[in-house]
């Protein structure tokens, strides 16, 4: 709008200068009084128009200036808000990274503990297999001992019977 107003003002000034030159040329050519007065009236009208255009241009320039100041203030506020938001996001990101690093450390510790637990489980399984083997051997020994014990009991029973038969005969 400011540029348009300047262009209009420039055009009006050019027209005014041209009309002034024409008026001077006509005066130099001995323009009749009526035509001279008409040119003077036209000149006054053009001067009024020029004055009005200048005032309008000045008002538009002031309004544009105020609008630019408001826009600049709004942009500064928006920029400040964006900077604050970016700082907040950066802070949140740092916090999230710290939490993530802590969780990663916890996971590494848990993984290490899990590996240790797996080794311990394997060791316990090995011991369990050895105990199972030893238990089987002990059970086999126990069965063998039970058989020997039964044989001995049978032999003892047979001996008792034999002694019971021999004892009455030897007493008589």
Structure, briefly:
The protein has a domain at 57-163. Helix content is 97%, strand content 0%. The protein is built from two helices and no strands.
Question: How would the blueprint of this fold be written?
Answer:
Blueprint lengths: L1 H27 L4 H139 L1
Helix pairs in contact: 1-2
Main sheet makeup: none
Which regions contain 5 or more consecutive residues with pLDDT less than 50?
none
- Give the structural class: mainly alpha
Radius of gyration: 61 Å
Percentage of helical residues?
over 70%
- Count of β-strands: 0
Tell me the fraction of residues in β-strands, as a range. Answer: under 5%
Average predicted confidence as pLDDT: 90
Number of helical regions: 2
SSE order: HH
Q: What is the end-to-end distance?
A: 157 Å
Principal-axes geometry comes out as rod-shaped
Main location: cytoplasm
Protein name: NINL protein
Keywords: Coiled coil, Cytoplasm, Cytoskeleton, Phosphoprotein
Coiled coil: 36-165
General description of the model:
Keywords: Coiled coil, Cytoplasm, Cytoskeleton, Phosphoprotein. The mean pLDDT is 90. It is rod-shaped and about 200 Å long. It starts with a helix and ends with a helix. It has a domain of 107 residues. Helix 1 runs antiparallel to helix 2. 97% of the residues lie in helices and 0% in strands. The longest helix has 139 residues.
Task: Provide the descriptors you would attach to this structure in a database record.
mainly alpha; 0% strand; rod-shaped
């Amino acid at each position: 709008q400011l540029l348009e107003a300047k262009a209009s003002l420039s055009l009006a000034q050019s027209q005014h200068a041209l009309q002034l030159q024409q008026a001077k040329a006509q005066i130099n050519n001995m323009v009749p009084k009526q035509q001279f007065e008409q040119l003077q009236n036209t000149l006054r009208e053009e001067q009024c128009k020029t004055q009005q255009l200048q005032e309008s241009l000045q008002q538009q320039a002031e309004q544009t200036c105020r609008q630019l100041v408001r826009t600049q203030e709004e942009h500064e506020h928006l920029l400040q808000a964006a900077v604050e938001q970016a700082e907040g996001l950066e802070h949140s990101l740092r916090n999230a990274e710290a939490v993530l690093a802590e969780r990663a450390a916890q996971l590494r510790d848990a993984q290490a503990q899990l590996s240790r637990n797996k080794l311990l489980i394997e060791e316990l399984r090995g011991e369990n297999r050895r105990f199972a083997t030893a238990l089987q051997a002990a059970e086999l020994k126990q069965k063998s001992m039970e058989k020997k014990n039964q044989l001995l009991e049978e032999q003892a029973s047979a001996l008792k019977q034999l002694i019971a038969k021999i004892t009455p005969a030897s007493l008589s």
